[in-house]
Write a sequence for this structure.
């Protein structure tokens, strides 16, 4: 069976490299450095799961990407894991008025490699 | 009137008070009219002169015009534009009518021997309180003259008892004294009370102003407090992100996800080291910002700070950086740009920040121009580059802590997002400001405007909001 694919979106190149090293043990890993790159990559070839940072070029860029994915028929089913340094409460406060959360799991940086793998494993079945 | 020179508001307060007193007057008059009617009915039956029964005529007149006043009063209350002067005039007219009625009553009940003579003093007291001693002196004189004309004009058929002329003269003399003293005594007490009232009102006004000022200050302090805690939150997040990268990199290496001998491991170690360096820079800038905001921590102020000299020093220090990046660093200086006072290390830090930014966001082959000149009351330091520029939508947030434009982020990872916040802080501490102009992809111009003398009037340790209070 072919390896499942993960799109890792984060603007910190060192972080991307470190997390890729972990994910590559089980998945095929692609990366994007910002929201625009992420959406282009997903449109070109939808991954099995997306791991998203929140604060990139813009304050809530990760959420914008997640919302865009959830509002499109083609990408609605792709599971989304937020992986960010900003805590969830702070984010929700910034995103006030949000009545639903456009993600499946919220992980706070730094995350232990085994936790990340376990979360992805659970979502990908 | 004693009210000249008082505020319009005080006038309004007095007008409202006068309106209340007129209402009270009207109520009293109902009682007086009723009492007179009772008197007219009872007098002849208890052995008083039969003519005294005609007093009912006066009672009817009093009750009739009181009814009119009662109706008018309701209109005045509703109209809401009761002017003090106008109300005072109405009061005077009322008193005059009352007194005329009283003169008539005295005339009907025996003239110099009338039991109603002492009633004149009531109106003198009330009139002096409500109007003024001068007005009431004139009124008292008029009343006295009317009485004199009646008493001395001979005992007519209107119930005047046969009283000897000397007695009538004596009563008139006593009446004059009674009226005069009543006005004088009342005025002495009333004017004291009125003055005290005015002073109290002024105090209340002052208190209200002070309270409003304090409330404003409190709101400002709350806003500052809110900004502070938001800044702390933001700072913590800004520190956590690179720390998380370092931790993740180390975990990945320690747990064997990467071969320690591989180039990838070396890359992760180098990356982690870079992040730690960035963290140290952020901590350094945070400390600098805290020092700037904490007056006690600041380097001492010195007088006669040569702005051009500071700029020359900074440019010299940064020449190697410019050369390494293949950027031409040009400068031009007016010699006599000297600030009356300033904090040289802070100014140097700010200038270095601006010049370093210009070099950082320039492309190889570009030029950075540093200029120091005089412009009116200001010493101006201008740093112009031909670099990547600032997106127009980002210009407003340029000086906000941790704000970095996306193109700046892409251009270089180096940068804490605190430099321009520090520059702004330094400019404001010197009583000046910082301006920025930019065209995306064409370059930016930053201008530090510092008052040559203006900064000296202000206490260096006092923040803007504090200054407003002492002003």
């Amino acid at each position: 069976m072919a390896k499942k694919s993960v799109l890792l979106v984060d603007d910190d190149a060192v972080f991307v490299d470190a997390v890729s090293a972990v994910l590559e043990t089980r998945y095929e890993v692609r990366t994007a450095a910002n929201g625009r790159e992420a959406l282009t990559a997903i449109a070109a070839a939808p991954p099995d799961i997306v791991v998203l940072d929140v604060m990139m070029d813009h304050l809530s860029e990760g959420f914008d990407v997640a919302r865009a994915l959830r509002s499109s028929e083609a990408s609605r089913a792709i599971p989304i894991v937020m992986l960010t340094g900003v805590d969830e409460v702070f984010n929700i406060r910034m995103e006030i008025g949000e009545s639903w959360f456009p993600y499946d799991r919220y992980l706070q940086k730094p995350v232990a490699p085994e936790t990340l793998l376990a979360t992805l494993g659970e979502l990908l079945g | 009137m004693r009210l000249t020179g008082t505020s319009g508001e005080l006038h309004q307060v007095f007008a409202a008070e006068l309106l209340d007193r007129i209402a009270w007057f009207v109520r009293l008059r109902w009682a007086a009219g009723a009492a007179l009617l009772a008197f007219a009915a009872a007098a002849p039956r208890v052995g008083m002169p039969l003519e005294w029964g005609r007093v009912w005529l006066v009672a009817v007149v009093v009750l009739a015009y009181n009814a009119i006043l009662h109706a008018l009063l309701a209109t005045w209350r509703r109209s809401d534009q009761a002017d003090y002067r106008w109300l005072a005039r109405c009061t005077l007219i009322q008193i005059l009518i009352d007194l005329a009625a009283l003169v008539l009553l005295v005339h009907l009940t025996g003239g110099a021997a009338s039991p109603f003579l002492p009633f004149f003093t009531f109106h003198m007291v009330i009139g002096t309180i409500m109007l003024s001693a001068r007005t009431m002196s004139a009124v008292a004189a008029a009343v006295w003259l009317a009485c004199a004309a009646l008493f001395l004009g001979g005992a007519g058929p209107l119930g005047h008892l046969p009283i000897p002329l000397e007695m009538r003269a004596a009563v008139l003399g006593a009446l004059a004294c009674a009226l005069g003293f009543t006005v004088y005594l009342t005025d002495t007490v009333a004017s004291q009370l009125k003055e005290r009232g005015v002073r109290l009102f002024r105090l209340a006004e002052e208190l209200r102003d002070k309270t409003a000022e304090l409330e404003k200050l409190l709101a400002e302090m709350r806003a500052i407090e809110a900004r502070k805690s938001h800044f702390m939150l933001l700072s913590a997040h800004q520190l956590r992100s690179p720390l998380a990268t370092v931790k993740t990199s180390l975990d990945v290496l320690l747990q064997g996800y990467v071969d320690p001998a591989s180039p990838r491991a070396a890359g992760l170690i180098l990356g982690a080291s870079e992040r730690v360096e960035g963290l140290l820079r952020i901590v350094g800038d945070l400390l600098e910002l805290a020092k700037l905001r904490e007056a006690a921590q600041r380097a001492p102020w010195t007088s006669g700070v040569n702005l051009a000299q500071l700029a020359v020093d900074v440019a010299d220090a940064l020449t190697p950086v410019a050369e390494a990046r293949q950027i031409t660093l040009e400068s031009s200086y007016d010699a006599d740009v000297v600030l009356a006072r300033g904090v040289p290390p802070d100014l140097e830090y700010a200038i270095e920040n601006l010049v370093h930014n210009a070099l950082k966001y320039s492309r190889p082959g570009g030029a950075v121009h540093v200029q120091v000149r005089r412009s009116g009351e200001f010493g101006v330091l201008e740093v112009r580059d031909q670099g990547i520029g600032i997106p127009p939508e980002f210009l407003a947030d340029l000086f906000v802590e941790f704000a970095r434009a996306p193109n700046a982020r892409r251009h270089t990872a180096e940068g804490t997002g605190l430099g321009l916040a520090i520059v702004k802080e330094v400019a404001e501490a010197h009583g000046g400001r910082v301006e920025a102009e930019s065209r995306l992809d064409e370059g930016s111009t930053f201008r530090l405007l510092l008052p040559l003398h203006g900064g000296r009037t202000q206490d260096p340790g006092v923040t803007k909001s504090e200054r407003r209070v002492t002003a």
Q: What stands out?
A: The longest helix of chain B spans residues 165-254. Residues 1-6, 456-471 of chain B have pLDDT under 50 and may be disordered. The domain at 269-470 of chain B is CATH 3.30.565.10 (Heat Shock Protein 90). The first strand of chain B starts at residue 302 and ends at 306.
